[in-house]
Amino acid sequence: MLVLASQSQSRSAMLQAAGIAFEAVPAEVDERALEREMEGADPTEIAQALAAAKAAAVSAMRPDDLVLGSDSLVTVEGERFDKPASREDAARHLRYFSGRTLRLHSAAALATGGRIDWIGSDMASLGVRELSDAFIEDYLAHEWPQVAGCVGVFRIEARGVLLFDRIVGDHFTILGMPLIQVLAALRERDVLE
User: Fold this and answer.
1) Is 55 part of any domain?
2) 132-169 pLDDT, tens per residue?
3) Annotated catalytic sites, by residue?
């Protein structure tokens, strides 16, 4: 049985669309504490560590299952951004992102028996167009609170696409998981053909 160590609707939707049977079990991980411990580390390493921590935490409870953990984080000009704490925080993030390049670091990890046996990651660059205060207010009027749980304050499959004037990177990575790499790892473990 594949277990997704997440309640992310986007990650669940990716696996469902690919026809993969799984069970979602949220991971109890203090993400902020782990991020503080890794302060100054490369964003990809942090995303990988968070994905691995989630997979390991759920795998410790479900040692006979293959557990998939995943995480994404955003950096803009070297500054890391977490999920917005409030609508006002979301507006601050969007004002900062305006006219800049957002880098989305996405990672995934597989664990069995409480041990990590695979980690993958990818990065996408998203050029944020100039955003007016009026646009930001209208955007959040339509997208809040759905984007409250989204690093980068966007859902690319919804109005979030309006934020960008260029995107370079894998679509699945932008959705929150390097799915092509995950599928290859699942095939290596005979979970998929």
Assistant:
1) yes
2) 999 999 999 999 999 999 999 999 999 999 999 999 99
3) 71
Give pLDDT, residue 79: 94
Q: Is residue 123 part of a domain?
A: yes
DSSP 3-state assignment of 162?
Answer: helix
User: Has residue 127 been placed in a domain?
Assistant: yes
**Domain for residue 193, yes or no?**
no
> What DSSP letter does each residue of 62-81 carry, written as one string?
-TTSEEEEEEEEEEETTEEE
Residue 100 has pLDDT above 90, yes or no: yes
β-bridge mates for residue 72, sequence order:
106
In Å, how far from its chain's centre is CA 134? Answer: 28
Cβ 39 vs Cβ 88: under 8 Å:
no
Query: Which CATH number fits the domain that encloses residue 109?
Result: 3.90.950.10
CA gap 60, 69 in Å, rounded: 13
d(CA 72, CA 61): 23
Within 13 Å, how many C-alpha atoms sit on residue 112's CB side? 10
Overall domain count for the chain: 1
Q: Domain limits at 84?
A: 2-188
| Residue 7 pLDDT level (bands cut at 50, 70, 90) | confident
CA quadruple 12, 17, 18, 20: dihedral positive or negative?
positive
DSSP 118: E
Please give the model's pTM, rounded to 2 decimal places.
0.94
